């Protein structure tokens, strides 16, 4: 029988023992991985799935995919970096940057003004990227949302064309529940709308293995849309179908100051050429 207000010696002793054990154990930081639940919508960032799906290597596949040419250092950032020390990056030789502007049709990066305008003020050539979620809304709708919330383009010589970040779904099925043909259609809808709104062909950021699995290694965008390849290794490796070279390469997530560092496949003049169109 339970008596309100009365606690047995066993319950008190058990509680004290449990408290002492709790205090003596290392305190783990809760995470979505621990709980098995997906991360919060809006928290995705460029390359979020690369380590988990492609890993990182410095020895495998040492065949160069392009001739050795001058490459120009860049970075990509999102809300995870908060206010960025752009002057530090500039002094370290970083000359271009991309900032996450939007995700789906439901999220805008709260750090976007400081990151996008701050990089410009520090002298970097900068642009914006959109994290695609093909399972939430159509490609054209997401292109409109991107352009309307920082993803536009101006011919000022310091603004790069927008980027479609299309990669593993951090919130569910890797290919967003779409067939390969449906994914190609979604991407085409985004690219066509972005081109009609800005006059520029968007850059496609992706990883070869995702592109192969989720588009069937479709090669039809290579003629118009520059490739930004993701691979954390000593070379960019095999590229998706259609592209014989990459324009940009995200080569690490552990670089100085901001983590994600990239290389533009050419000199600073080539970066400026992409900015001006």
From TrEMBL:
The keyword Disulfide bond appears for this protein: yes
One Gene Ontology biological process: cell wall macromolecule catabolic process
User: Which compartment or compartments is the protein found in?
Assistant: Secreted
GO cellular component terms attached to this protein's record: extracellular region
Catalysed reaction equations from the record: Hydrolysis of (1->4)-beta-linkages between N-acetylmuramic acid and N-acetyl-D-glucosamine residues in a peptidoglycan and between N-acetyl-D-glucosamine residues in chitodextrins
- EC number assigned by the record: 3.2.1.17
Annotated family: Belongs to the glycosyl hydrolase 25 family.
**Protein name, please?**
lysozyme
**Organism listed in the record:** Streptomyces bungoensis
């Amino acid at each position: 029988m339970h008596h309100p207000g009365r606690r047995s010696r066993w319950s008190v002793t058990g509680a004290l023992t449990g408290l002492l054990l709790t205090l003596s154990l290392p305190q783990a930081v809760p995470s979505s991985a621990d709980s098995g639940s997906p991360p919060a919508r809006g928290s995705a960032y460029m390359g979020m799935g690369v380590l988990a799906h492609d890993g990182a290597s410095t020895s495998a596949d040492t065949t160069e995919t392009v001739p050795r040419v001058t490459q120009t250092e860049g970075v990509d950032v999102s809300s995870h970096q908060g206010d960025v020390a752009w002057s530090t990056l500039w002094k370290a030789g970083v000359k271009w940057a991309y900032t996450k502007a939007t995700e789906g049709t439901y999220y805008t990066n709260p750090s976007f003004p400081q990151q996008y305008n701050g990089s410009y003020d520090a002298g970097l050539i900068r642009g914006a990227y959109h994290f695609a979620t093909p399972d939430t809304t159509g490609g054209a709708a997401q292109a409109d949302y991107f352009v309307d919330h920082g993803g536009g383009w101006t011919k000022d010589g310091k603004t790069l064309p927008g980027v479609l970040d299309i990669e593993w779904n951090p919130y569910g099925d890797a290919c967003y529940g779409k067939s390969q043909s449906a994914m190609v259609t979604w991407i085409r809808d985004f690219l066509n709308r972005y081109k009609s709104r800005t006059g520029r062909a968007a850059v496609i950021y992706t990883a070869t293995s995702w592109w192969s699995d989720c588009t069937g290694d479709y090669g039809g965008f290579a003629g118009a849309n520059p490739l930004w390849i993701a691979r954390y290794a000593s070379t960019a490796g095999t590229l998706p179908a259609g592209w014989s070279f990459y324009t940009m390469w995200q080569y690490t997530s552990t670089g100085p100051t901001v983590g994600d560092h990239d290389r533009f496949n050419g000199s600073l003049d080539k970066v400026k050429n992409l900015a001006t169109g």
